DNA sequence: AAGTGGTCTAGACCACATA
DNA sequence: ATGTGGTCTAGACCACTTT
């Protein structure tokens, strides 16, 4: 039998398509360049549009493509390195930390938040909504929960505009004893998706942080990062220079 | 006009389906319980199977469902908290760190790895393949890269079985000066998928770690965690007790 | 052999951005 | 008005597990 055993373990079409597209992306396209539309691409590769889309979806998940409804599909730049776990423990809102407050409210903690805080389900918490922008585009939204018990000296009469800064200021009075983080995969809620300029359900990295002071959880935050454009960095050094899938990239005109 | 404005902003069917299914999951099903098959579910909700699948896919992404070909769809237990960033910096392979070596090789570093190591593209590296198991199931695979220059005193004559332990032993001689981590979303390579008991392309959390010694990167690892079952934890305290989307869960019989 | 989830097709229409 | 990606349908067949 002189025939080489080819395609004996047949891989799915979309999987093979993905590898073909990756090669084309690395060799024939520049970052930012726009691809042919899905109908044309599907015809070119001789597959149904749904199959082509399955390949594109994974490439977008891996941060190699960016698709925008009404516009088209473009080659994505390397993911941004976003520092999440600094070496020095600091309170949120202290010392220029790249977050910008966009809202504030005081309400009863939802059950899920109460579980993280370790408080009762009916305790009042200040909820500060913040946003993180890098290189001109939003990369994360965050809900920061501060139990009222953590900021007992907060002035009760505050205009909405002064509320968030006041809560943070009171929080900084406490001595921060430690932080705790968890990262998991999620899909963007409708509201988060809007802030992040994505469609609902887009893949996101959810970072849950607990801030410890006075021997208990003094505050907690749930931050939602765009999974397609962000690489979360932890540890001593800051962002790593080069990402993994291309050594150098040039901006298309 | 006395009519309440309902469904003016029509949400996609699969999105609405998701919320319906989440409610059903929380109220009518136990962890581990098997759901009706996709064709029945689609018929019950009056949608095409592809639409139903779009909802199930997102629920699996969020760790609420587990689907296995030939078996069925089950309600997933809460995600496991997997400690990734210990407070004390330690070399891999030191002091019972939950990883188990399953292979080893010495070869030239791929370009992507060389970039992380900061070495030349043609330098020899030891590649140790390890696996992490929690609660009886594999949760991660890892490729640990150790440049030959980091372990100069390694005995050149080693049986394959002794190779990996010897490399780690030599590595532990060095003083570990710091670690560096990055987390990003990826899709499982075919080989990784096999180890993790998932299909190729399954969503994974890729943790890239750099180990610093002697003022340079003495080793680096790329670990691939199942995104559906894992919640990566960092920081002082270990795994958090309760996860976010259910306060208590009982094991089905 | 039967039943499950996974892949694939060839259409259709919708929401959105842009010219 | 046109073109893009996003949603949806009603089938078909395949790969895999279990009976």
From TrEMBL, chains A, B:
Q: Which organism is it from?
A: Actinacidiphila acidipaludis
Q: Which UniProt keywords apply?
A: DNA-binding, Transcription, Transcription regulation
Give residue ranges for domain HTH gntR-type. Answer: 11-78
CDD domains, A to Z = WHTH_GntR
Name of the featured protein = GntR family transcriptional regulator
Q: InterPro entries attached here?
A: Bact_HTH_transcr_reg (IPR050679), Chorismate_lyase_/UTRA_dom_sf (IPR028978), Tscrpt_reg_HTH_GntR (IPR000524), UTRA (IPR011663), WH-like_DNA-bd_sf (IPR036388), WH_DNA-bd_sf (IPR036390)
Give the coiled coil ranges.
Answer: none
Q: Which domain of life is it from?
A: Bacteria
Q: Name one Pfam family in it.
A: GntR
């Amino acid at each position: 039998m002189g025939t080489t055993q080819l395609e004996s373990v047949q891989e799915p079409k979309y999987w093979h398509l993905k590898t073909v597209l990756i090669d084309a992306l690395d060799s024939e396209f520049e970052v930012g360049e726009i691809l042919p539309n899905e109908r044309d691409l599907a015809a070119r590769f001789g597959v149904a549009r749904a199959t082509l889309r399955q390949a594109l979806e994974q490439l977008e998940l891996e941060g190699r493509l960016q698709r925008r409804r009404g516009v088209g599909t473009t080659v994505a730049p390397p993911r941004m390195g976003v520092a999440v776990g600094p070496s020095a423990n600091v309170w949120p809102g202290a010392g220029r930390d790249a977050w910008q407050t966009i809202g504030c409210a005081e309400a009863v903690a939802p059950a899920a938040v109460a579980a993280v805080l370790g408080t009762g389900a009916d305790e009042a918490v200040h909820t500060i909504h913040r946003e993180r922008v890098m290189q001109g585009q939003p990369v994360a939204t965050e809900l920061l929960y501060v139990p009222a018990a953590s900021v007992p000296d907060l002035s009760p009469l505050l205009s909405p505009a002064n509320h968030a800064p006041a809560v943070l200021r009171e929080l900084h009075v406490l001595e921060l004893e430690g932080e705790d983080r968890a990262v998991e995969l999620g899909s963007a809620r409708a509201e988060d998706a809007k802030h992040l300029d994505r469609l609902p359900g887009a893949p996101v990295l959810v970072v849950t942080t607990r801030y410890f002071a006075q021997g208990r959880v003094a505050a907690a935050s749930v931050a939602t990062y765009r999974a397609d454009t962000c690489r979360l960095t932890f540890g001593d050094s800051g962002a790593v220079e080069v990402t993994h899938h291309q050594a150098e990239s040039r901006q298309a005109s």
